[in-house]
Write a structure and sequence with these properties.
The chain has helices spanning 20-37, 58-68, 86-99, 117-123, 132-150, 165-174, 189-199, 223-241, 252-256, 262-273, 280-294, 308-328; strands at residues 6-10, 41-44, 73-80, 104-109, 157-162, 178-180, 211-219, 276-278, 298-302. By secondary structure, the chain is of the alpha/beta class.
C-alpha cells in the first residue's frame, strides 16, 4: 500500500499530426483531471528545440493551469537555472505565489533542456555550459532574491532537481527538498538519496530531509496495452540513445511498426524494469517498492503516452486500485 502523496510530471508531448496549440489546450484539461483525481501537485518541465516535446515555459504553463484549477499545487519540474537570470526567475515565481497562495512550487534544475548546442548557447546568450560553482551561485541567488527582493508575501516552495550525487549534495548543502529524476537516471537514485540524507543541513526552506522521486509510470488494464502505450516514448528514447533529439512523438501504431536494434531493445527493457509499467496491481506494487527502497516522502508519476485520454486513464487506474486496496484493509 502507498501512504504518501502522489503527484504528476507533465512533459507536454506534441503528438504527430497535431499542432503545439492542441498540446497547450490539453495541459489545462490534464490539470483539472489530476485535481479531480486527488493528485497532490503537477510540475512542468523545461525543454527546447524538440519535435516531440513542446517548448512551453514552465512558468507560463503553471500560470495557465493555476487559472483552471483551485487546490492542486503547480510549478516547475524544473525550470533550468543556467538559462535564466536568477532575479527574473524569482520575480516570475514570486508573482505566481502571490497570485495563487500556497499552491506554487519552484523546482530548479541544471541541464540545458536541449541536445542542440547552438540552441543552448542562444538560451544563455552565447555562454557555454555552467560550472558546478556557477550553478550553485545561481541557485543561491534565486533563493536570496525570493526573500530579499521579491517579497510579495507568500513564497513559492523551492525544490532542487537532481539525478546524481553531485546534485544531491547541493540540495543537502542548501537545505532544500530534493526531487530525484529516477525516470531519467534510475541507476543513481539510491546513492543520491543516501548522499542527501547524510549531508543534509536544515534551512529556512526545509527543517529535515524531504525526498520526492519521479518515476515513469504507464498503467493499463493489461500488460500488453501498457506496453503499447509506452511504445511511442520508446521510439523517442531510442533516438536519444543515438544522440538524436529530432524524433517526433509517433502514434502507438507507428511505434508498433518501428524496428529496434537488439542493443536498443536491451537498453529499453532494462530501463523499463526500473520504472512502473503494467497493470494496476503491478504498477502499484512497483511504486510501493520504490517508495520503501528510497524512503520517499512523495512519488511523482510521469506518463508520456500519446493520447490525453490514455494518459488520464493511467492515473485514474492507479487511484482506483489504491482506493479498492484501502477499502479491503
Amino acid at each position: 500500500m502507498i501512504d504518501i502523496p502522489l503527484s504528476a510530471l507533465e512533459v507536454a508531448m506534441v503528438q504527430t499530426g497535431t499542432r503545439a496549440l492542441e498540446t497547450l489546450r490539453d495541459t489545462a484539461a490534464f490539470a483539472q483531471e489530476m485535481e479531480r483525481l486527488g493528485y497532490h501537485r503537477i510540475w512542468y518541465a523545461e525543454h527546447h528545440h524538440s519535435p516531440a516535446i513542446g517548448a512551453f515555459p514552465p512558468v507560463v504553463l503553471t500560470a495557465h493551469a493555476a487559472a483552471s484549477t483551485s487546490v492542486i499545487r503547480l510549478g516547475s519540474g524544473g525550470v533550468l537555472a543556467p538559462n535564466h537570470a536568477p532575479l527574473a526567475l524569482a520575480e516570475q515565481f514570486g508573482t505566481l505565489a502571490a497570485l495563487h497562495e500556497d499552491r506554487v512550487d519552484l523546482g530548479i534544475g541544471r541541464g540545458p533542456g536541449t541536445f542542440d548546442e547552438g540552441i543552448a548557447r542562444a538560451l544563455r546568450r552565447g555562454a557555454g555550459p555552467t560550472t558546478d560553482e556557477e550553478y550553485r551561485g545561481d541557485v543561491a541567488a534565486i533563493l536570496s532574491f525570493l526573500v530579499d527582493e521579491v517579497a510579495l508575501g507568500p513564497l513559492p516552495e523551492p525544490w532542487l532537481l537532481a539525478s546524481s550525487t553531485a546534485g544531491a549534495g547541493l540540495a543537502a548543502e542548501l537545505g532544500l527538498p530534493i526531487a530525484l529524476a529516477h525516470h531519467i537516471r534510475p541507476e543513481n537514485t539510491l546513492t543520491a538519496v543516501e548522499r542527501y540524507r547524510a549531508a543534509f543541513t536544515p534551512s529556512r526552506w526545509c527543517a529535515e530531509p524531504r525526498v520526492l522521486v519521479c518515476v515513469e509510470t504507464v498503467c493499463a488494464e493489461t500488460e500488453g496495452e501498457a506496453a503499447r502505450l509506452l511504445g511511442p516514448m520508446e521510439v523517442v528514447k531510442a533516438g536519444l540513445l543515438k544522440g538524436r533529439s529530432d524524433f517526433p512523438f509517433p502514434t502507438p501504431e507507428e511505434a508498433a511498426a518501428h524496428s529496434f536494434a537488439p542493443e536498443e531493445r536491451r537498453a529499453l527493457d532494462g530501463f523499463r524494469a526500473q520504472q512502473a509499467v503494467g497493470t494496476p496491481e503491478a504498477v502499484v506494487e512497483r511504486l510501493a517498492r520504490l517508495a520503501e527502497e528510497t524512503g520517499a516522502d512523495e512519488l511523482m508519476l510521469t506518463t508520456p503516452v500519446y493520447d490525453l485520454r490514455d494518459r488520464v486513464r493511467s492515473y485514474a487506474l492507479i487511484r482506483r486500485h489504491l482506493g479498492a486496496a484501502s477499502a479491503r484493509e
